[in-house]
Amino acid sequence: MAHFLLVHGSCHGAWCWRDLIPELEALGHSAKAIDLPSHGYDPTPAGDVTLDDYAAAIHAALDRPSIVVGHSMGGYPISRAADLNPTHIEKLVYLCAYVPWDDHSLIEMRLRAPRQPILKAVQKAEDGVTFSVLPEHAREVFYHDCSDEQVAFALENVCPQAVLPQDTKVTLGATYAAVPRAYILCEEDSAIPPEFQAEMAADFPPEDVTRMATSHSPFFSDPAGLAAHLSRIAAT
């Protein structure tokens, strides 16, 4: 059975994997979710966080061979971590996540998308250091197929997101390219347009691209289905 390291996206934390971890364990796998610096219970000030700090947190959590799953923004730090040191990274799984293009920051990647539906749901702080989720648009953009309890749980836990890690360009090399990858595309995503997800996954082998009829948050709306897909990815 596989071990999964779960890496959250913007404004989230380890808490967002609450419903997925039991489903993975029921299939015989083990899983660990982490808080990236300045998220969840991590006390790092948002203004001090870099993309490489995110990668370092991933490396610190890799205590055994693992399939590393990155959600949304999490695609950038898992890619950077694999490029810096792939030890213990068996495979990268992008869950409706950004797959870095050469010499692009995540912000630049987002701007390459044909639509910007996420903008209505986030607001940048006056100092420009962070941005935050606007509660009045959170369900529509991130959680439209999630339960009231799940949405309330998410809104109780979302935190400001540091801008600098998302404004950092990366160019990934041969070390990253040697790590196996898979993509899970969310077809009803209202945060990252599904057609842009398909573009980012265009150079993945077709058998390594999975589609789910969910929102941006399948770890809430279909944790059993997501666990089944991850289990199949682990076996291939």
UniProtKB/TrEMBL annotation:
GO terms for molecular function: methyl indole-3-acetate esterase activity; methyl jasmonate esterase activity. It comes from the Bacteria. Pfam families: Abhydrolase_6. Residues 4-228 form the AB hydrolase-1 domain. InterPro entries: AB_hydrolase_1 (IPR000073), AB_hydrolase_fold (IPR029058), MES/HNL (IPR045889). Coiled coil: none annotated. This is Pimeloyl-ACP methyl ester carboxylesterase.
